[in-house]
Amino acid sequence: MATETPKFDPVKYKETTKQQWQVAAEAWHRWGPTLAAWLGPATETMLDMAGVGPGSRVLDVAAGAGEQTIVAARRVGPSGYVLATDISANILDFAAKEARAAGLSNVETRVLDGEKLDELEAESFDAVISRVGLIYFPDQQKALAGMRRALRPGGRIAAVVYSTAEKNRFFSLPISIIRQRAQLPPPLPGQPGPFSLGAPGVLEAAYQRAGFRDIETRIVPAPLRLTSAAECVRFERESFGALHQMMSGLGEAEREETWREIEQGLIQFESAEGFEGPCELVIGAGAK
After folding, report:
1. Rounded (10°) angle between helices 89-101 and 67-76
2. Per-residue model confidence as pLDDT tens digits over 85-112
């Protein structure tokens, strides 16, 4: 008798995601220098495309530990304002601490589901940014609608997403290995995940459906440079909650074997200069 493929449960998915980030918050913060080096150029491009400058009011959705929040806050200066939101209270604590340590008084944090942005005052921001966050929302259109509502007329959105699995082998290779070992079905169409907005035209179409205009996208190569494949595994093992979620059905011994197999797969990206994991990002922007 054939078994029915489990249906995607957005409520359960979101709760699991929240729990993962509550646990991974410290590690994501600790790996901050790696994140800044890896995603720094894309972050600057995102802020450029969002029109973030002195005096801007910026909403950062799925802000995480806030490394890009700090970059935005320095751009907007004392006359500007950045509100960092995330579903995880733990990870926002780190964002708030970093802002204080940097001497920034123009940053505020708020625990907020990215699909419930209607709790914010309408037309109160000049720019909305989201760095590698929109891809994980179960209802991306609801999130985009909330972002558009929060923007003043003429305000801009800019988001960073991964492109395709083929262009992001540092991440897609571990996913493939885990999916095979855990006997997981392929993701359903429309299901959230790392590459859900990465195919050509997909992010643009999502913006169009949400009512944005003047849409543009840019491809940004973003190789993940570390000392070794082993360090990449440590980074992903400590910080990438999605991988742990996929492994939840495996026993401890099999999880350890899976991580070893992942490291062996990632060794192909090592050289005498160190580890360089293939990564390509898409930055999409639009206006209200």
Report:
1. 40
2. 999 999 999 999 999 999 999 999 999 9
CA distances (Å), origin 248, targets 171, 172, 231, 242, 255: 18, 18, 22, 10, 9
* 8-state DSSP, 70: H
More confident residue, 57 or 26: 57
Cα distance between residue 196 and residue 242, in whole Å:
14
Instruction: Determine contact, residues 57/129, Cβ cutoff 8 Å.
Output: no
Q: Which of 16, 8, 287, 269 is nearest to 152 (CA)?
A: 287
Task: Please report, to the nearest 10 degrees, the dihedral formed by the alpha carbons of residues 222, 99, 238, 180 taken in order.
Answer: -50
β-pairing, 270-271 with 274-277? antiparallel
Q: What angle do CA 94, 259, 4 make, to 5 degrees?
A: 95
φ, ψ (nearest 5 deg) of residue 146: -65, -40
What one-character-per-residue DSSP string does 138-161 give? SSHHHHHHHHHHHEEEEEEEEEEE
Among 28-32, 146-150, 249-253, the minimum mean pLDDT is found in 28-32
Q: How far apart are CA 195 and CA 227, in angstroms?
A: 26
Task: Round to whole Å and give the CA distance between 269 and 98.
Answer: 33
- Cα-Cα-Cα-Cα torsion 63, 145, 120, 79, nearest 10 degrees, comes to 60
Local structure of residue 240 (DSSP, 8 states):
-
The confidence score (pLDDT) of residue 6 equals 58
Least confident range of 16-30, 38-52, 92-106, 133-147: 16-30
* Contact status, residue 181 vs residue 246, Cβ threshold 8 Å: no
Helices and strands (H and E) in the chain: how many: 10, 10
